Amino acid sequence: MENEPAQPAQITNRQIAEVLSNIADMIAGQNGNVYRIQAYRNAARGILDLQEPAASIIERGETLQLPGLGERLRGRITELIKVGSMTINNGFYMDTLPQGVRVLMTIEHIGPYTAIRLHEELGIDSIEKLWMAANQHEIRKLPGFGVRSEARLKAAAEQLLPKSQLANHIRPLGAA
């Protein structure tokens, strides 16, 4: 007897809402359009308020009827339900971020939120400044950072800096 292929699990309304909320957070992390952020948050709430799974509505060929839901976002939600992923990269613009933030995002362990915080709160805009701030124990003073995360960022920066550049910053105790 042959086994029937298993039906893929249907995405839940809660999962859809989490994806939408995470996208809203990413847009906010890039200091994006407040109306766009609000649209994603409203869509997440609307999905949670549905009386039936959004996936069932889409499978029947019906349109999601959520207040204030635009065509583009409706299409992205449908894509998420049908394909299991959502194309959003064309909505994020790296060039809207300051150059220093973009530089920091090239370093291992640093995403947009961390890069923006380091840039705005400590003025870090280069790999060298990240290494120096970690070496001077400045990063651990920020809320949400500690000794381990500071050490991890320092090690990641060291991997990218030439050894000669690091040697110029290391001075014996008592040296000016």
UniProtKB/TrEMBL annotation:
Annotated ranges, domain Crossover junction endonuclease MUS81-like HHH: 12-85
Protein origin, superkingdom: Bacteria
Lineage: Bacteria, Bacillati, Chloroflexota, Ktedonobacteria, Ktedonobacterales
InterPro entries linked: DNA_pol_lamdba_lyase_dom_sf, HHH_MUS81, RuvA_2-like
One Pfam match: HHH_5
Protein name listed in UniProt: Crossover junction endonuclease MUS81-like HHH domain-containing protein
